[in-house]
Each structure stands twice: as C-alpha cells, then as structure tokens.
Automatic annotation (TrEMBL):
GO terms for molecular function: phosphorelay sensor kinase activity. Keywords: Membrane, Transmembrane, Transmembrane helix. It comes from Mucilaginibacter lappiensis. Residues 208-286 form the Signal transduction histidine kinase internal region domain. This is Signal transduction histidine kinase internal region domain-containing protein. The chain crosses the membrane at residues 7-25, 45-64, 73-90, 170-188. GO terms for cellular component: membrane. Residues 129-151 are annotated as: Disordered. The keyword Membrane applies.
Amino acid sequence: MSRFKAFSVIIHIAGWLLFMAFPLLFINNRGQDDITWSLLQKHSYWLFCYTYIFLFYSNAYFFIPEFFLKKRYVLYSIIVVLLFGGVYYLQPFDKLLRSIGNRGKGTYGINRPPFGSFPPGYSGPGAPLPDGRMGPHADSPQDGPRQFPPFNGQDRGRHHFLHLRPMDSISLFIFIMVMALSTAIRIIQQWRLTERRAIQAEADKTTAELSFLKAQINPHFLFNTLNNIYTLAVIKDDHAADSIMKLSNIMRYVTDDVVADLVPLQSEIDCISDYIELQRLRIGNNTRVNFIVTGNVESKKIAPLVLMTFIENVFKYGVSKHEKTTIDIKISVSDTDISFFCRNHIFVRREENQRGGIGIRNTQLRLNHLYPDKHLLNIWNEDKEYSVQLIINQI
C-alpha cells in the first residue's frame, strides 16, 4: 500500500471514530449519567452509525461515479430524494435518544403527548378553566357539537392521515452534511485523477517525442554517407573501411546506447566526432570545421542526442558547394555545467529553413522536460549567421 493510500485510510478511520463519538458526547452532555457502554450495546446506536457510513460510501463510490459524473443528473436527483426520504422515515438520531430512556421525547428532549390526549388538568374542549371561564371551542348552537379524536387514541386509524411524522432535524442535517462531504471528496478525487491522467498523457507524448528525436538521424545523411562510402570502396580508398566503422558506431549509439535517460558525455562526443568526420566526406574543401572540446568529460553525463539536432542543422544549412565557409563547434565542461556552442553561415532557402525549425522546437521541448530550470538556450539568427548557445547545469 502506498504512503498516500495508507494516509487516506487513516484519515477515514479517524473521521468515522470521531463521528461515532458524537452521539456519546452529545447524550452525556445533556445531563445523563455515563451510559457509554450501555449505548454501545443498543441496536439504535449502530443503526445511526451504519446509516451514515452507508450513505457516505455509496454516494462517493457508486452514485457519484455511476450517475452524477456520467451526467445522469435526473436519476441521481431521484436517488438523493429517496435517500432523504429513507432518513426522514428511519429518524436514526431521534430513535437513538428514545432507546436510552427518553421515550416520548423528541430530538431536543421535549415531551410529546400521545395522539388524541390532552395535557394534565385539561378536560378537553368546552370544559371550564380554573378561573371559571369556558374553554375554547365550547359547544354553541350555531356551530353544533364539535368532534375530537378519542382521548385514548381509539379509532385512531380514521384520523391517521392527519398525523404527520415528527421531524428529526439533526438526522436530516447530518444527512445533508454527509452527502455534501462525500460528493465534494469524490469530485475532488475525480479532478485529481483527471489531472494525473492529463499529466501522464503529456509525459507519454513527451516520451514519444524523445524516442522520435533519438531515432531522428537525417535519412539524407545516411544516403549521402552510404554513397560516399560506396565511392570510396569503388576507388579502393583507404578511408572506406574507417568510414563504415564510423557509420556503424553512430547507428549503434542511436539504436542501442540511448535507451537510458543519461549517457556518458564522452559517448555523446564520440558520436558527434564520428558524425563530423563522415560529413567531411560530403562537404569537400570549401567548408572548414572547427570542433573543440575542453574540460574533463570523464565523470559527466548528458541526455543522449540532445546536441544532435544542432549539429545536424549546422551541416544542413551551413554548407555550400560554391562558397567557402567556416563552421565552429565547441563543447566546454566545468565542475558545474556543460556548455555547447555552434556557429555557421546560412545558405539554405527560407522555406527549407522553416521546415528545419521543427527539430529545434522539439529539442526545446525535450530540454524543458529533461532539464527543467537547469538549462539556458540562446539562439541567434542575424545577418545570415546562425548561432546556438546551450548551457546545462550539472549541480
């Protein structure tokens, strides 16, 4: 059982113990002798407790999920009215008071005369009062004799429809509070569940995007690299075997070694180095590539391929077959952070550059997910020069 569920169970138990102590405290405070043990043996006490426990959990875990949350409001309202009528009929709190010797007393301890009886000293309508005056409703010729229910309640059934069941206001108040509390708790639980599902869905979406980015090596790069390796093999160049090995290392890193959330920084640098070396086969002598790594990288880790989108963009948009250009790539490592910087001239057409921005936006989302509040990303695109600075805090 998780810590949250255990805490929830403890809260429920404590709440119901407090609720079950309520009638004990209420009755003892009304001047009665200590009748706690006697009360615990009364069926009316357990009827009182079980009634509201049943109402709470049936409403929270059945009626609300099955009717209210499914927008079957009319049916739910009918059920609430029926439950209200059941409590009105059972009168659990009033019945509890009667069971401990307060028979004939209502919720507030007021004596209720039997139906059809009169207070002591009162002989009935029309009888003389103590001061000699005639009582109310005396027989008069114009009114004729008035009829009253029998003194002892005989033939009571004929007048039963006139007799309303006394209202147990405390039981009805507790009913309203229990139903309101159970409804609020269930709705809050449902809201939290919906929120967790939304967060999980967003996390799953982000994970899918991360998986996509991990596998996203430009297919044109693969085709061009294979063509270059094929050309080297045809002319029997000594670099063919080395190029095949570098491509194999990249594919192994992309497909196998990036399963973990973090990988050694050295592995990421090796992949970038192999990628740059393979790109040199394509770009020729017009493009100069400066790749510099400074600092101690042995103990550092980084999210796999987080730098790869920027490296791909450098060679996708910063290379020309007709003009000479320079590409600068630098990785600096300190005790507190990993710093990445790249700069290249832009030769690509505008519409192609817009398509390439999708990868950058995805990488920004990935950084926000992997390094929340622990990274700084600056991108400059000025005067046909594109620069990226990324700092990842390692503390």
